[in-house]
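Deliverable D4.2, example record:
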Amino acid sequence: MKAFQKLNNFINADYILWHRLSITFKLIQFSLLICLFVSVMGCKTYKTKIDPEVQKKANLGDEKAQYDIAKSFFETSNEFFITKKSRQNNLEESVVWLEKASNQGNLKAQYHLARYYAIKKKDFDRAFNMMKSLADQGFVEAQYVLSSHYVKGWGTPKDLSQAYKWYLLAFEEDHITLKHFHYYLVFSEYLTHTQISEGQKLAKEHLTLVGPSKHLFETDR
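Output generated by the structure prediction step:
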């Protein structure tokens, strides 16, 4: 009986081993197929296609058309099978049109430029000033990003009261997200009761002057 039990245990163990090996081999085969597919397809040099009418409007100074062109170049830069040089060229072209639209007063272009300066250029001072302007106007997306600037001290001295203020404004109706951020600041950044009270006071003052926050990209949702 013991011999039979040992044999049974060996068979079961052997089955588990071969089952795991078969899964491993399948993963390897799948990976090889992906590599083969990529090598066959190759990377391409993508040229962004712009509607002639949109291009004409953009050249004449239409800020919406300029922003749409910037979006088109950015979307092309995110294509999967694209050369590194082509990706960089499209991204740079996108920034050129974002600059033009931003100078014409396009708020969405200003937001994306601020993110570009922070993430790609590490120019936190410029990014902070642009994002602060949008947050002051009551845009949720900018208020959320600005709170991170204050937590990390990017382009501004670290200020948890200000961080709490902007997060309160950005997520005043999303209590679950707000609760998680509250716990994060308390346990990771040692947010104090005094800073919480100050943040709440600042948020109320902003609401009195500007009103409820709104989405900058509401039409894009």
